[in-house]
């Protein structure tokens, strides 16, 4: 395996003269909006992971593909790195700017180009908001399935870059399962079409490769998404448990009973209390855990499934089961879950949102592990899960004004992710690796695998100028992190609790 | 974009001394079964595309991963190309041997390692037959969804290599949608794990990249597949039409009505007659086209959908609609479709099976185009489609004993595929590119895109020794083919009928 791409970290990036680069780009890209004064750059210093902040050298806000092409070609020629940003709602620092780089903001590409109800597709520009696609499709009884919590704000281009999921991805899949074709541009300004309107495309599946590649391979310039018919009905059950591990086991048992819920979410006591305080969702605040199970489809089918799920929950030891009586109550149940993050934010000056995925059967064990880690670090952890697909979002509560607590929270977060890897899971479910989890990649992958990532990166971007320092660690970084070659149950961390 | 990999065509491959290579491999890989005599090699000279035949230099039948690793490392050192073969049922010549190469046959890796009904997964070796997975899962009420027509014989490793589909892929997806993790080995003998048991994995999506890569990137050594619960019931409707284009329009209208059938198949008059002669399926031989629409799920839901589909078919001008009364009749309806290929084989000394995909809305136009091409070439074409996902299998009837007819059939087939590209479709739906469609890749992709494929190939296999000459054409080949840079409606072929 040959290493062609030397993933640069900030410290190794070339030092570019800002005034020169600005003058060059102004000359080379007519009409391009370029921000360069500190006060103009400030709003772009972070994405949704605001613990990491870097002021970019320049911010570019192109309005046409010709401008994007000219900008990329010029940056390539000058050796200036480029970080692409959608709506900036990402939670792993994937759009964190570089001090020596251009931040390419795609927000002005915000047009829905086509909704074709017969083919059930929409063709959109990358800056279109996720929810705007469903709004445009609604008159035809259709919608776009992936629904990240940020769907009011996040852009579809960012969704492609991060392979975004959401509450319904257990049943309806991630972004990669709902995108048919993307138009992309490489750092060399070359335009490529990946995928097709057909189920499959000949040659390598570059569409899937590109989806979730976090801006490392190219810039998304147009997306064709699948639209689905709106389910006839949706019903939601809420089950309470007096034990969080019992709730974890119930999740696996629902799936094992042959049900694929539209959404299957879990919250633990701290998350329940925070949400209830905030939105009065009607949650049982004395419960150790609740499950929210939404079933959607045709009426008769949904009713059958509700009965089955109810039986499974009872057998699993649920202390109470409530079915939302109407749409208003259903919305209330979901409001608690959807506002869990800001709700937890009200309980603590700061919180750190993790994102790991584990095999469903390991839920009880990992919950126990997180509780032990929480106690060992003396930091509270609220757990909010897309439980059905094993995607966990532990929220670590801390106070950044207390000396060292941020570091402690980060370390605890890292340990939780390593625990995910140890049980056969992964260090990200839907938020991506970005800058945040670059070290944990060393725990997830072997050196050969990381080398292959770099080789694939080089196939698209031999100059290594697109979003350097994100997503894939250098082998040197992994050696420093000291956790190479980790697989199930073999994590060589002496300080990690054993389970 | 840098070209790193020089895709070799047969003529450009190194000349290896067979006796030397044999002696070397026998010494280097203890216990490896190596076939070298012409009579032993003969059964391996082609895969399911028997029009192409090449006798391999050697055939290797390893029994352990250590043998595979040692073999690959040795071939890499000697510069001997390697073609991997599963069950040899592929229809595009992807496993066509090389005169100067080793054919690596994975058929002895035929063990089902694990069926986990709670996690709904099975872990299997690559030589396991597709249907054997469903058989092993059946006691748990589960099955493996992708069902290529060859599922009795084809191997799951080959399914991954070709991203195989089947009658049910409209609803249940292709292989890539049903595989969670693969273990692979590179030409350098490095072992990698791609994917995970979770919905998503961090880093680039190498699992999806690898699926359908036709043995160009590495050798699949283990596969973890998803299992689905068997649908409670399945019902099938057969509709007759007096006009093939009407039937084509009905397909789009069924989907537009919000139904996703388990299977939605179409056959034209020639295919109907062939099938009826062969298996007495009860098909209306006077019809110009029939649609078979299978609906599966829970009883009440299926009944509702049957009513909806019936209304749509009536409105679309169906001249007759029959619902299979029982399982026996349902099996009979499907037997006709599943035996359509051998049935057509009885009508003509030879036939050539094409595989293209088009947007559903273009079905009527493409059917007209195929009819025109058929007339222009004086060769009969029977049409059998996975209509729901726009995947067509035109069968071109010819007699290889008639001077020039094979060439004519191949040329006609190429024209049909170019027509697919012209209307926004692709040159393969589920059979892959292999050796067969290497020229049509030039019609499908621009030079930049093909260069990217080569760069990705080089990221995994810089030596270019894995299955050279398949799947991705050289740019030189495309220049010769003379059809670069083709996109919707811009095909520069003066001799292609215009529509």
From TrEMBL, chains A, B:
Q: Which PROSITE patterns match?
A: FAD_PCMH
Checking InterPro entries in the record gives:
FAD-bd_oxidored_4_C, FAD-bd_PCMH, FAD-bd_PCMH-like_sf, FAD-bd_PCMH_sub1, FAD-bd_PCMH_sub2, FAD-linked_Oxase-like_C, FAD-linked_OxidoTrans_Type4, GlcD
A Pfam family it matches: FAD-oxidase_C
Occurrences of domain FAD-binding PCMH-type (ranges): 52-230
ATP-binding keyword on record? no
One Gene Ontology cellular component: glycolate oxidase complex
A single GO molecular-function term is: (S)-2-hydroxy-acid oxidase activity
Which Gene3D superfamilies does this UniProt record tie to the protein?
Answer: 3.30.465.10, 3.30.70.2190, 3.30.70.2740, Uridine Diphospho-n-acetylenolpyruvylglucosamine Reductase, domain 2, Vanillyl-alcohol Oxidase, Chain A, domain 4
UniProt KW Cell inner membrane keyword: no
The cofactors named for this UniProt entry are: FAD
Q: Which UniProt keywords apply?
A: FAD, Flavoprotein, Oxidoreductase
Superkingdom per UniProt: Bacteria
The protein, known as: Glycolate oxidase subunit GlcD
State the organism named in the record.
Halomonas urumqiensis
> Lineage in the entry?
Bacteria, Pseudomonadati, Pseudomonadota, Gammaproteobacteria, Oceanospirillales
